[in-house]
Amino acid sequence: AIRRRIPAHRQPQVRRRHQPAEDEEQAHPESQHREAAVLDRQAAKTVVSEPHVSPFDREFARRHPLRVLVAEDNFVNRKVILTMLERLGYVAEAVAGGRAALAALAVALFDAILLDLRMPDLAGDAVFEMLQSTDPAQAARIVFVTGDLRSDRARDFLASTGQPSVGKPFTFEE
After folding, report:
1. pTM of the model
2. Which stretch of DSSP H or E encloses residue 82?
3. What DSSP string runs through 18-76?
4. Mean of pLDDT over the chain
5. Which of 82, 98, 151, 165 has the lowest tally of Cβ within 10 angstroms?
6. CA 101 to CA 140: how far, in whole Å?
């Protein structure tokens, strides 16, 4: 069996709600019985709090290597996605539009493509349809990222592709 040593900052921290004073003395057997009952109640009240563990595992990319393309026209959204990927250990390539995504896909293969559905120069649905006809293997690697999940057009398109999608705003767990 392999034993890993847990770093001190990741060890569970045990806190008690009530700590009896050190100078309390029990003189009678009845008081010893009461002390045992108090200790039992205190043990029941013991709170075990796990240290905060970040959902970001910097070694994830080493265990699951992927070449990732992020196509997002909004600078802030692009930066958030890149930061999340970096915290997992990935160095992703990022482009600011649909045409740039097609250009990047023409010269390199990607294992995952995070594609914004609504971009001004060439929307994600158009990029997907072009890839479906020219490179279906790359099209199958698309994960749509969109803030437009309420419109019937976007929902119908996403349902027709069978590709995964993430709504904006999103959390890391998504």
Report:
1. 0.65
2. helix 75-87
3. ----TT----SHHHHHHHHHHHHHHHHH-EEEPPP--S--TTHHHHS---EEEE-SSHH
4. 77
5. 151
6. 15
